[in-house]
Amino acid sequence: MTTVAAYAAPAAKAPLERTTIERRAVREFDVLIDIKFAGICHSDIHQVQEGWGEAIFPMVPGHEIAGIVSEVGPGVTRYKVGDRVGVGCMVDSCRECDNCKAGQEQYCVKGNVQTYNGIGKDGEPTYGGYSQKIVVDENFVVRIPDGLSLDVAAPLLCAGITLYSPLKRWNAGPGKKVAILGMGGLGHMGVKIAHALGAEVTVLSQSLRKKDDGLRLGADHYYATSDPKTFQELQATFDLIVSTVSAPLDFNAYLTLLKAEGVLVNVGAPEEPISLNLFSVIGGGKTLAGSMIGGIPETQEMLDFCAAHGIGSEIELIEASEVNTAYERVQSSDVRYRFVIDTATI
């Protein structure tokens, strides 16, 4: 085992603090990664605060991990020392169910092993990317193309795939009108990816405060959802709406913005339940759907796509000691658009 420095929450809702954790010895099919950068996802905050239910503490958050391979097990064939790699939201799955065999490990019937706040097959808790090193089975590691800097690539391991997967699944592209609901860490990636796919892109945001950014990143249109006229003007406009908002919304209102047989797919994960009038989907044959990250093959596809189109996250690089301030700023929407920890400062 290896002792490494990390930042952890010792208890629910407690500030993160510097500590040390143990990483397992490299097994036959394992890859040891020197973590260079770790993104801060809103999911990290939800879990530290137990917003999604009881959690495991101490907790080392972080599932947007970019680094360099420093050791491989004797059975590893996919990676070698020096490779640029990433780790996202999961580090194992059953590998036997139909979903796993189809490359959709995120929907593992038996439940995948989360990168942090999870229990591995060895019965030990998992610790995430706010640390200096991590050991992961090679099957849950992805390659970061040379065209992507590691710092702006780190958030792609969650934010990037979370938007890429539904945009691809529901055929965002030329001739399609796509709305991205929310202009934050997830939403700004949706704008970039939908634009690169060739769709006509609209941002729906609470205010026009980030309009210049939205247009710069690839949006064709930008509307404030706080203005009632927006819902009148855009009625029956979109083929696809991707909601990145992690707070309850009036989905009945947003469903009116879809064309007949349009899709509103939710990737945000509110802590509270929503209310829905089913006539909002019955009328117009509309679909209210969900999507959760992506499988390992699709995550690699996303990274290759982003490298080919010059897409990285818009980041604010911070030192590890600033993580608690960063959490506060994320909760007040004061980041453009993803905090990334320089793990050399841990």
UniProtKB/TrEMBL annotation:
Keywords: Metal-binding, Oxidoreductase, Zinc. One of its GO terms (molecular function) is oxidoreductase activity. It holds the Pfam family ADH_zinc_N. It is an enzyme of class 1 (oxidoreductase). It catalyses: a primary alcohol + NADP(+) = an aldehyde + NADPH + H(+). SMART domains: PKS_ER (SM00829). It comes from the Bacteria. Residues 14-341 form the Enoyl reductase (ER) domain. The keyword Oxidoreductase applies. Its EC number is 1.1.1.2. Its cofactor is Zn(2+). The keyword Transferase does not apply. Belongs to the zinc-containing alcohol dehydrogenase family. PANTHER family: ALDEHYDE REDUCTASE (PTHR42683). This is alcohol dehydrogenase (NADP(+)). It comes from Streptomyces xiangluensis.
